[in-house]
Structure formats: structure tokens, C-alpha cells
Amino acid sequence: xxxxxxxxxxxxxxxxxxxxxxxxxxxxxxxxxxxxxxxxxxxxxxxxxxxxxxxxxxxxxxxxxxxxxxxxxxxxxxxxxxxxxxxxxxxxxxxxxxxxxxxxxxxxxxxxxxxxxxxxxxxxxxxxxxxxxxxxxx
Length: 138
Known about the structure:
By secondary structure, the protein is an alpha/beta fold. The protein has five helices and five strands; from the N terminus they run αβαβαβαββα. The protein has helices spanning 2-17, 38-54, 66-78, 91-102, 127-137, and strands spanning 26-31, 57-62, 83-87, 107-111, 120-123. The protein has a five-stranded parallel β-sheet, sandwiched between helices. Helix 2 links the parallel strand 1 and strand 2 (57-62). Helix 1 (2-17) packs parallel to helix 2 (38-54). The model has no long low-confidence stretch (mean pLDDT 84).
């Protein structure tokens, strides 16, 4: 249930943000190791697909441990990506801290969490609402 709702959120976010990206702009996607994680695999596939459609560049930064999250956000900011997209609850604190540090020069967004910052677009969901919708559809 959670995966279906997460997938819908990812598609809506990526489809909503992709047209706003100009050709040649760059996106950094920061997440756990993709591996066989179906949710992260779908995120990466959709980012690749939309990069081909809209002409933006992207880089996937995988974080195998907690220390790598901070290093990945530092690297993405240093490389001046136009949009930094964090996927997963771990990204909230790093995105909020970096957004406060750099101001409006870089856009930040997080999926599956709430960064608690007006400078970070947060996309999450209420599990009970997804369960209700699935029940209504059934």
C-alpha cells in the first residue's frame, strides 16, 4: 500500500517539476542505494525518462550509510545543481539545512518526508488515505 502511494507521489512530483526545468539545467537525486528497491528503481527510471524528454542533466547520488547523506548534499551544493531532490526520510534535515545555507540559488525538494522548511518542497502522504482509496476502488 505504502509503495503504491509513494509511487504516485514520485510520478506527480517528477512530472510537475520536469517541465519547470529548462534544457541544460541539472538535477541531483540523493537516495539510499537503488539496488533492487522497486521504489527507488522507479524514481531513477522516471528521472532518466524525463531527462530525455526535457533535456536536463541528472546525477544519482546513492548513500549507503548515514555519513554519506551529508557528503552528498555538500557535493550537490558545491557542484551547483539547479534542483536537489532527496528521496527518503533521511533527506529532510540535510535539505532543510542546505536550503537555509544557500538561499534561493538552488531549489530543494524531498519525497516521502517533510523537511519542515518553506525553502524545501516536501512531498509525503498519509498512509490511511491511500488505504481508504484502495478500499473505495475495490
